[in-house]
Amino acid sequence: MLPWTTDGARRRQPASLFGNTNCFNRRRPRSVEGADGCAKVSLSIFEKTLIQKIEDKLPGAAPGVQLQVYQAGRKVGDISVGETYPYYDLASLTKTIFTVQGMIWAFAQEKWNLKTTVQSILHWFPSEKTLVRDLLTHSSGLDWWQPFFESLKVEDSRVHRWTEVQRKIRGLELKPNDVSVYSDVGFILLGCILESLFDKPLIDVWKLVKEEFYPRSGFDFHVDNKPANKEKFYAPTERCDWRGKLLQGEVHDDNTWALGGVSSHAGLFSSIDDVSWYLLFLRSQLKGISRTKVPQKIMKTFTTRARPAGKGDWALGFMMPTPGASSAGNYFSQYSIGHTGFTGTSFWYDPVQDLGVVLLSNRTLLGRENKEFVKLRPMIHNWVIEGLKRS
């Protein structure tokens, strides 16, 4: 039995980190003291309604979910339903938190521009016409995925494995298509570009990005697939056949795991509070109130729709709502930006409504092909906005 303490639908926390295991303490200003002297959480009607709706639909979709909602920069919702954990495999949220932010920073330093070709940075890349921006908008023609992990040897150095993946990418055929095709391969290639632009190995580029933009956060890669904390604090993502183990604190993505836990398309772990902080950080950059070295004008460039109508719902690295089929539901405006992660993670920010929603889960524990969470996620976003309109 794991040393957790739970209180209804509220978030599980590790007892060893939060003291008294006989009660639950969210450390929120709306708490009151119970008869046992422990802090009890006072939930709003908005939160209680969300909990009830999610509880009704959660079985079969995910073991549990964590949800935080921000309006005008203020937290208005913070709930957990089902079996939840302090830390999650963020999967493809790595693409925006690390890779896109790194590319934005490099853009601000004039290391590249919207007309820069991939070949001008990576001379080994075969296509003369492919632009760096094509990788960010998933319109380069690269395959959506390749099973690189099948030929990588874990006994080789991480540098050797990364070089081997570059060699394989160099040999891939580009398949030009007018419509964007989501590509992990393209974002792995962006990792190679980041290494070249900053003249450092990828993990050191990440350290620079973290120090510059997220110095107080818990975002991090688990280098050599070694968790930063005890495994029991991480949401398990799958009992993997080819790895022969339950993945808990080790990255779920096959290729990232084979690369030693570090990549530009997946690999980051952290908490919902950190992802929410990132969402608020994005908001501050868009509003021009961030103290970072990235001008508001550049953030606007990266968060503006970059593909023609019907050709792909992408800004430069950020997802934008697909009409009638958005993971953000039906109410987020066409100017919204966000991203999803394969393990069941997502964030969305709508600058028109000044509304942000962060959702974390480990839906893959119920099976990689489980599609129930894909149906549930937009419903949750709809319930959030409908609930806020009533409150």
**How many domains, as an integer?**
2
Binned strand content: 5-15%
Could you tell me the CATH topology label of the largest domain.
Answer: Beta-lactamase
**Cα distance spanning the termini:** 39 Å
**How many individual helices?**
12
Radius of gyration from the alpha-carbon trace, in angstroms: 21 Å
List key phrases describing it.
391 residues, alpha+beta, Beta-lactamase, 5-stranded antiparallel sheet, 12 helices, 14 strands, 33% helix
Structural features, described:
This protein is α+β, with helices and mostly antiparallel strands. The protein folds into two domains: 1-42, no CATH class; 88-390, DD-peptidase/beta-lactamase superfamily (Beta-lactamase). The protein has helices at 15-18, 45-57, 93-108, 118-121, 132-136, 158-170, 184-198, 202-213, 254-258, 272-286, 296-302, 372-390, and strands at residues 4-5, 13-14, 32-33, 39-40, 64-71, 74-82, 88-89, 220-221, 238-240, 245-247, 268-270, 337-341, 345-350, 355-361. Helix 3 (93-108) crosses helix 8. The longest helix has 19 residues, at 372-390. The radius of gyration is 21 Å and the shape is globular. The two termini are 39 Å apart.
Would you kindly provide a brief summary of this structure?
With 391 residues, the protein is an alpha+beta fold. The chain has helices at residues 15-18, 45-57, 93-108, 118-121, 132-136, 158-170, 184-198, 202-213, 254-258, 272-286, 296-302, 372-390, and strands at 4-5, 13-14, 32-33, 39-40, 64-71, 74-82, 88-89, 220-221, 238-240, 245-247, 268-270, 337-341, 345-350, 355-361. Helix 3 packs across helix 8.
